[in-house]
Amino acid sequence: MKIKKLNFSKIYSFRSGQKPNFRTENPQIGRQGFSRVVLCNEQDSFESDFRNSYADNSVRSTKYTVANFLPKSLFEQFRRVANFYFLVTGILAFTNLAPYTAVSAILPLCIITGATMVKEGVEDWRRKKQDIEVNNRRVIFHKGDGNFEYTEWKNLKVGNIVKVKKDEFFPADLLLLSSSYDDAVCYVETMNLDGETNLKLKQGLEVTSSLNEDFKFRDFKAEVKCEDPNANLYSFVGSMEFDRQKYPLSPQQLLLRDSKLRNTDYVYGAVIFTGHDTKVIQNATDPPSKRSKIEKKMDKIIYFLFCVLFLIAFVGSILFGIVTKRDLHNGVMKRWYLRPDDSTIFFDPKRVAAASVFHFLTALMLYNFFIPISLYFSIELVKVLQCIFINQDINMYYEELDKPALARTSNLNEELGQIDTILSDKTGTLTCNSMEFIKCSVAGVAYGRGVTEVEQAISNINNNSPMIHQQVNRSESESDDIREVHDRKEQIKGFNFMDERIMNGNWVNEPRADVIQKFFRLLSVCHTAIPEVDEDTGRVSYEAESPDEAAFVIAAREVGFKFYKRTQNSLSMKELDPVSGNEVNRTFKILNVLEFNSSRKRMSVIVKDEEGRILLLSKGADSVMFERLAKSGREFEEKTLEHMNEYADAGLRTLILAYRELDEEEYHEFDDKFSEVKNSVTVDRESLIEEVSDKIERNLILLGATAVEDKLQNGVPECIDKLAQAGIKIWVLTGDKMETAINIGFSCRLLRQGMKQIIIHLEIPDIQALEKNGDKKAIINASRESVYHQISEGSKLLSASKGPSQQTFALIIDGKSLVYALEDNTKNMFLELATRCASVICCRSSPKQKALVTRLVKEGTGKTTLAIGDGANDVGMLQEADVGVGISGVEGMQAVMSSDIAIAQFRYLERLLLVHGHWCYRRMSTMCLVFFTSCHCPWGL
User: Fold this and answer.
1) Which of 220, 431, 437, 689 could form a disulfide with 555 if both were Cys (CB 3.0 to 4.6 A apart)?
2) How far apart are alpha carbons 674 and 616 in whole angstroms?
3) What is the pLDDT of residues 736-787, one digit of tens each?
4) Contact of 842 with 834, CB cutoff 8 Å
5) Distance from CA of residue 665 to its chain's centroid?
6) Bridging pattern class, strands 562-566 and 570-576
7) Which DSSP helix (H) or strand (E) runs through 242?
């Protein structure tokens, strides 16, 4: 069933989606860095070809091209010291100096280097095939005269008009023109770029919103002037000239390559940046040339052996020169039997200096057994065999998606056994990106008998845990009831709630049934989800901005509060009437939606019910909600806090639910102010909206709390435990907000109860006050000073904790703070603090910051690093690390294409490192030892 066209600018009134249309052009346009000109829908004109000679839309992740394969591959081979040495001796073998034939010197070198080059070519061809697959994806584009047809991504040009359908990836950076909704809004999932799971609302300009059908693009023409290609995902400056009017453009109108269209049937967009000019590719780096530490160590050994060889040849040549010179005494040859009178320059006593030099070169060739030429060939052979072992390992095969492990390069197998630090993405790597409603606290009573992954882990460690015994040790009949409920609900995505007191309408028999009704009614109304009704089965499913929100409306539906219809300004649901016992329809008029953001940490809706009451329904983090409760609304506060602490110990994400009733006069006063600031064009528009919203979201009445589990991938906690036992440190670098990352940290055992948290952030009053004033220089200086001070205080705290009862610490830092922590004068102090902590979590990290943190750890510690991720936002990190591991999950293949090794699940990392890594390192090091000792020890092995 198609989603009805709604005017989202009214439903999402708090958002910045509905922007006023300015007629002024940004003053930066035309200056350096802001000189790009795009002629939309004029790709066939001469002027377009002349002015828009930009990059094509094909991308590559390969190390080589047809043109540079031979020189680049030869460079790779001959930067190995031994190969270069044998190349020199091979060239000398063609002279009379050689004590052997030239073929015997050159042929082994050609075989070894040729075989290695073929191996690297095959590996790079595999990457090329993946590039071809991406470049040949199909998209609908405007051919001309209002006709649209399919073409490959690689064929797109700047200025093309494309049509992208629901659940498709954007093939380039597009300017949003219109969508299937009347006011040109659409949902975009950017998980593949920044790791965030919540959907972003994008909105095109009002002047192009009517271009929502193919034939309307017959005569469409526009000129876009904007910034040049850059790596900043969150900025876009430009203007569009359409119908002789200029309109400003913002990030709100930019759809980035590799993000996905969600909850929208289709969008039309103009191609602005293509291929390597797109922001996601700008965030990537060229494929690096990586070498293992064993190989680098071998180079040092060979340098040493070369010095020994040089010394032997040098001493031998000096002695040769002395003895040869003595052959001639008073014109008489002492060693007449060597026929010196018939010798060439190589043995001429009359030209001793030249003879000694030639003898030295001959000795270098004669003693070259010191450096075993077969070593590198043997190494390459063993590496290929080890890759086969990894690729064929049935224990790393993910049957559900039919994905085995894949060693995409064989150069780094032995590095897997030397990993010191793992830098991991979170969403899609540690987690399944799946939220489940599992528990709740309503009216001071805890509901939900499910056991979380964290509780199960605690149970395995401590069988005497009272919390687990509460969940597990029940009467036999109660367990049967719960098992029956679980069996019935286990197929419902986002719902893992088990409690017979609530389910099947039994909530009406609870002592505070009125509060339970308000609690689940709030879950069913306070959201921005869109229902989709299956016409055949009547089943209602939901398209929501985030997995959390989807879990809430699903939970309300399963308990009996079924949201099933949304119109432009109303919401309909069905619920059980506790008086009559029948299911009744309820309709709420939506007046305002005060959307969630990271600074507000809450979301509210203002609705009018069928009785004419105006209700403010709110849900948010406990840090902001408890302080907004009225004195008369704190009846359940103590018990709710107690339950929330239990939920936090169980690794659950919690939200507080509260409400209040507004009188007509109070609401109209708020609505007037809210409409006024919403339509203002001042710089501090957003802060004014927050201020107005803040005043109405007061004196709330507490209903309870929800507890949602962010499901980890199977085996993640156990894998992290094993890796920690092996002495491997794990850092989590994520684009998610701090609260989410901390909760996952507890779930996957990266953070533990009792661990002291050092939190570095810039959400402090002083910085926020400066941000309101808008003085950028003052903000930068204050932020830099604040981060430096927080790092210093953290170091002092660590130093003060030394002693017999030393406490473990976890470092948590956000993306804004990372900008200053990674500066030259701060990064070493930051690294020292981080390496002294047991766990490190970097939140709100951009792809560039992930790569910079990885580089800092790699170069600062000098230890072997491994990066693991599954999205395009992880590519820089994977390429920067000594070893990059890509998860072949649900976020596309960008990470896999840029990785050294691909696996399907994070848990396979344990076997990859602790089994294959161990044996690869042991085999390689033992083989090298055998070669060197057998070649240089007189007794061999």
Assistant:
1) 437
2) 15
3) 767 767 777 877 878 877 788 899 988 777 777 776 676 778 888 888 899 9
4) no
5) 48
6) antiparallel
7) strand 238-242
Cα radius of gyration rounded to whole Å, the chain = 34
Q: Which of these is catalytic: 173, 425, 499, 710? A: 425
Find out whether 610 and 575 touch, Cβ atoms under 8 Å.
no
Is residue 573 within 8 A of residue 586, CB to CB? The reply is: yes
More confident residue, 451 or 743: 451
Q: How far apart, in whole angstroms, are the C-alpha atoms of residue 38 and residue 36? A: 7
Per residue, the 3-state secondary structure of 29-86, as one string, reads CCCCCCCEEEEECCCCCHHHHHHCCCCCCCCCCCCCCCCCHHHHHHHHHHCCHHHHHH
pLDDT at position 731 over 50 = yes
pLDDT at 14: 39
Say whether 622 is catalytic: no
- Report the half-sphere exposure of 472 (CA within 13 A, side-chain side): 14
What is the rounded distance in angstroms from the CA atom of residue 797 to the CA atom of residue 457? 30
198, amino acid identity: N
Where do the DSSP E strands lie in 831-873? 839-842, 864-869
Residue 787's φ and ψ, nearest 5 degrees, are -65, -45
Contacts of 788 by beta carbon, 8 Å cutoff, 6+ apart: 820, 826, 829
Q: How many whole angstroms from its chain centre is CA 8?
A: 30
What pLDDT shows up at residue 7?
46
The model carries a pTM of 0.65
- With bands split at pLDDT 50, 70 and 90, how would you rate the model's confidence at 108? confident
Return the minimum-mean-pLDDT range out of 25-39, 475-489, 747-761, 762-776.
Answer: 475-489
Under a CB-based contact definition with an 8 Å cutoff, are residues 284 and 875 in contact? yes
583 bridge partner residues: 576
- Cα–Cα distance for residue pair 893/316, rounded to 1 Å: 59
Mutual angle of helices 716-725 and 453-461, in 10-degree steps = 50
Question: Do 615 and 662 touch, CB atoms closer than 8 A?
Answer: yes
Residue 18 has pLDDT above 90, yes or no: no
Tell me how far apart the alpha carbons of residues 184 and 205 are, in angstroms, rounded to a whole number.
Answer: 7
Beta-carbon contacts of 765 under 8 Å, excluding residues fewer than 6 positions away, are none
Does the pLDDT at position 212 exceed 90? Answer: no
Distances (CA, A) of 640 to 49, 441, 647, 718: 65, 6, 10, 31
Quote the DSSP letter at residue 15: S
Cβ atoms within 10 Å, residue 297 = 12
Strands in 701-712's sheet, in edge-to-edge order, are 445-447, 431-442, 701-712, 653-662, 614-620, 602-608, 583-594, 570-576, 562-566
pLDDT tens, position by position, 291-316: 788 888 887 888 888 888 889 889 98
Q: Mean pLDDT check: name the lowest of 378-382, 635-639, 719-723.
A: 378-382
The strand pair at 883-887 and 864-869 is best described as: parallel
Q: Distance (Å, rounded) from C-alpha 623 to C-alpha 601?
A: 8
3-state secondary structure of 280: helix
The Cα–Cα gap between 539 and 841 comes to 40
Question: Which positions ≥6 away from 348 have C-beta within 8 Å?
Answer: 324, 340, 354, 355
